[in-house]
Amino acid sequence: MGNQIRNQIVKRTLGHYASLLEHATRDYEVSPRHVLRRIVQPLCEDFADIIKNGNKNDYAQIIEGFSKRCISFEIENKSD
């Protein structure tokens, strides 16, 4: 699989993870079905794609991206 396609998968995976964090911080509750269908299921598909077609650099990019978003999420939602 080409670099361009793998990069798209990495970006898509990070985007779905960011959406999951966004939904977790909304003032209103989104239905579990919506979260499952629109975020979790596509994220699982992204994982399957990256496992099947990715390489160690792709894995590292995803983990690094998750970590950055977690740190950002913690800073934005830190209680005083």
Question: What is the mean predicted local confidence, pLDDT?
Answer: 90
Can you count the helices?
3
Termini Cα gap: 47 Å
The number of E-state strands comes to 0
Percent of residues in helices comes to: over 70%
User: What radius of gyration results from the CA coordinates?
Assistant: 14 Å
Number of domains: 1
The chain-level structural class is mainly alpha
Q: What is the beta-strand fraction?
A: under 5%
Shape: flat
Return the string of H and E elements.
Answer: HHH
- State the major sheet: none
Runs with pLDDT <50, length 5+? none
Care to give the gist of this entry?
The chain is mostly helical.
What does it look like?
The chain is mostly helical and 80 residues long. The protein has one domain (3-76). It is 81% helix and 0% strand. It is built from 3 helices and no strands. Helix 1 runs antiparallel to helix 2 (32-53). It starts with a helix and ends with a helix. The mean pLDDT is 90.
Write the layout of secondary structure elements.
Layout lengths: L2 H22 L7 H22 L2 H21 L4
Keywords for this structure?
mainly alpha; 81% helix
